Amino acid sequence: MSNKEKGGRNSLFPEKGPLDKSGREILLSLQNVDITFGKGENAVRAVKNASFDIYKGETFSIVGESGSGKTTIGRAVIRVNPLAAGQILYKGVPISGKISRALDREVIRNIQMVFQDPAASLNERATVDYIVSEGLHNFHLYENEADRARKVEEMIEHVGLLPEHLTRYPHEFSGGQRQRIGIARAMVMEPELVVADEPISALDVSIRAQVLNLMKRFQEEKDLTYLFIAHDLSVVRFISDRIGVIYKGDIVEIAEAEELFDFPLHPYTHSLISAIPIPDPQLEKNKVLFTYDPSVHDYSEDKPELVDIGHNHFVFGNKKEIEEYKKIREKNVPLKTITIVDPNTPEGKAALASKAEAIEEAERLLEEEFLITPIHDTGAKWYSILSFFLPPIGLIAGLIFKHFNHKRNAKACMTGAKYGFLTILAILVLFAILLVLVVV
């Protein structure tokens, strides 16, 4: 399956990916993907049975709250996070799990990532020239030094910077400029797919539009495909062709952008859209949020799955819920997602009072969570090491930490003390055996 690419290079991927029923080319496909961190009792299933396709030339966005699994999926696509189950295919070729070194290099060459924090993702000790050139060096994507310099200069100018910036270091630039350097580093590789992990969330509002416009221009000029990860639905709406909504590792809804905003069928999607700020402060003040309550679902017997209800619209639910979603969609009447109340009416006053109570309750829960997990409760390794060599003291320290809710520190001390006592016991048993042998 060897094909020629630009410049006469051999590729392990076919020239085009498989086509779906409507004739669209599937560039990337996730099939029943599970991603788990940790083992045993500490195992956390971060992504659960995720399945979706990304088509050539489109922007597919994944949205959800913090900790929902968005970035985990993006890092799995670039082979940083291993899969516990399922597979990821690029142009129909499996790229997850164990693959050949040559195929791994092709994945790196064809799939690039733009990271969320431009400051943390750039090597502070390297010049901009070195940062942008690194991929060219690693993959020998230039003919000679003059060709390399030309490619780097053209790319740095393309992202709105100047050739004299190439001799500077990342700390000499603003956040928006650093993100442009990150984009240049990715684009100089001429990838087909770019995973953009919240590329504008760390930037000032005034700079965000510039970076988005830059990425859009690259997409049009180079026929790029984006996997765009974000939590800001107001931005996602205007840059995405299709949107996938994820909640605690489950893909709960997938649809085209306008379809999703007109018919947010899953209640979690509804809650995300209702939380989008309204530019008018008075209307925003009188807005009543729709709050998602997971307990409304009864999945004890009838298990949920992601189902196509028509209009290329997928929703996560059990059979009963799917039937209800289909009925709502068949009416073809856009759903009301934002509720503005009149504060002068009894109903409006009650709704706004309930909203204020909900905000106070959320603040109280956050404060409790902060108190439950003290800032110094790190579970540092040296607690375990000291407890191992001084198990009685480690045991006492563990009990004290536990009393003051330092759970991680208590666990570290208890674990070290346990292995310390076991080691002492093993030494005593060994000494007793040797003593018996000497006496006999």
Topology:
Blueprint: E1 3-4, E2 10-11, E3 26-37, E4 44-55, E5 59-63, H1 70-77, E6 85-90, E7 93-94, H2 101-110, E8 111-114, H3 128-139, H4 145-158, H5 175-187, E9 193-197, H6 205-222, E10 225-230, H7 233-239, E11 242-247, E12 250-256, H8 257-262, H9 267-274, H10 281-285, E13 287-288, E14 305-308, E15 314-317, H11 319-330, E16 339-340, H12 346-372, H13 381-389, H14 391-403, H15 407-439
Parallel strand pairs: 5-10, 5-11, 8-9, 9-10
Antiparallel strand pairs: 1-2, 3-4, 3-6, 6-7, 11-12, 12-15, 13-16, 14-15
Helix pairs in contact: 3-4, 3-5, 4-5, 5-6, 13-14, 13-15, 14-15
CATH superfamily of the largest domain: P-loop containing nucleotide triphosphate hydrolases
Tell me what the CATH architecture of the largest domain is.
3-Layer(aba) Sandwich
Structural classification: alpha/beta
The biggest beta sheet is recorded as: 8 strands, mixed
Q: What overall form do the CA principal axes indicate?
A: globular
Number of strands: 16
| Separation, N- and C-terminal Cα atoms | 73 Å
Which percent band covers the strand fraction?
15-25%
The mean pLDDT is 88
Provide a count of the helices.
15
- The percentage helix is 40-55%
Taking pLDDT < 50 over at least 5 consecutive residues as the criterion, the unreliable ranges are 1-9
Enter the CATH topology name of the largest domain.
Rossmann fold
CATH class of the largest domain: Alpha Beta
Radius of gyration: 27 Å
Describe the fold and architecture:
With 440 residues, the chain is α/β, with parallel strands linked by helices. The chain folds into three domains: 3-262, Rossmann fold (3-Layer(aba) Sandwich), CATH 3.40.50; 341-372; 381-439. Helix content is 44%, strand content 18%. The protein has 15 helices and 16 strands. The protein has helices at residues 70-77, 101-110, 128-139, 145-158, 175-187, 205-222, 233-239, 257-262, 267-274, 281-285, 319-330, 346-372, 381-389, 391-403, 407-439; strands at 3-4, 10-11, 26-37, 44-55, 59-63, 85-90, 93-94, 111-114, 193-197, 225-230, 242-247, 250-256, 287-288, 305-308, 314-317, 339-340. The protein has an eight-stranded mixed sheet with strand order 8-9-10-5-11-12-15-14, sandwiched between helices. Strands 4-3-6-7 form a four-stranded antiparallel sheet, covered by helices on one side. The chain has a two-stranded antiparallel ribbon with strand order 1-2. Strand 14 and strand 15 form a beta hairpin. Helix 3 (128-139) packs parallel to helix 5, helix 5 runs parallel beside helix 6 (205-222) and helix 14 (391-403) runs antiparallel to helix 15. The longest helix is centred in the C-terminal third of the chain and has 33 residues, at 407-439. Residues 1-9 have low confidence and may be disordered.
